[in-house]
Amino acid sequence: MASLVPKDKRQLRACLICGIVLNHHVFRDQGCPNCESYVRMRGQNDVVIDCTSSTFDGMMAMFQPNKSWVAKFSHVNSYKPGVYAAHVTGRIPEDIEDALAQKGITYHPRDGTADE
After folding, report:
1. What single-letter DSSP state applies at residue 115?
2. Residue 57 sits in a domain of what CATH number?
3. Considering the domain boundaries, does residue 24 fall inside one?
4. Which tens digits make up the pLDDT trace of 92-115?
5. 60: how many CB neighbours lie within 10 A of its CB?
6. How many CA atoms lie within 13 A of 55 on its CB side?
C-alpha cells in the first residue's frame, strides 16, 4: 500500500482528468495509470504538461476506490488505488476534451467549475 504514495514530493503533479497525484517523471515514463488508454502521456512530455498540473489542493488516499463514497463523490471510484487531489487547477486542452467526448468519456473538470 505504501507504494501508492509518491515518495519524492518534488515535482508532484495531478492529472487534470482523473486527479491522481504522481511525480512528473512517472507520468512521463509510465503514463497515467487511469487515463493512458485514451490520453497517451507515456514518453510525451508536452502531453504530460498539458494534461497535468502542479497546482492542486488537498490529497486523499484511495485504497479501495470502488467501495468508497468519497471516491464516488469525487468521480474516482472506477480508478486505480492511489493518491488523488481534491481540486486541480487548470483544464485540459479543448482538442483533448473533444477527443474524450468522441470516445464517450465525460470530462469532469477537477478545478470545481463543474459544480458551479
Report:
1. G
2. 3.30.40.210
3. yes
4. 999 999 999 998 988 888 887 754
5. 17
6. 5
Quickly count: other Cβ atoms within 10 Å of residue 8's Cβ: 10
Return the closest-CA partner of residue 100 out of 21, 15, 17, 13: 17
Range of the domain at 90: 2-107
> Which pLDDT score is estimated for 116?
42
The answer to whether residue 16 is domain-embedded is yes
Tell me how crowded residue 111 is: count the other CB atoms within 10 A of its CB.
16
Opening angle at CA 18, ends 15 and 20, nearest 5: 55
Cell numbers given for 68: 468508497
Which of 5-19, 22-36, 94-108 has the least mean pLDDT?
A: 5-19
Beta strands in the chain (DSSP E): 12-15, 21-23, 52-53, 56-62, 82-88
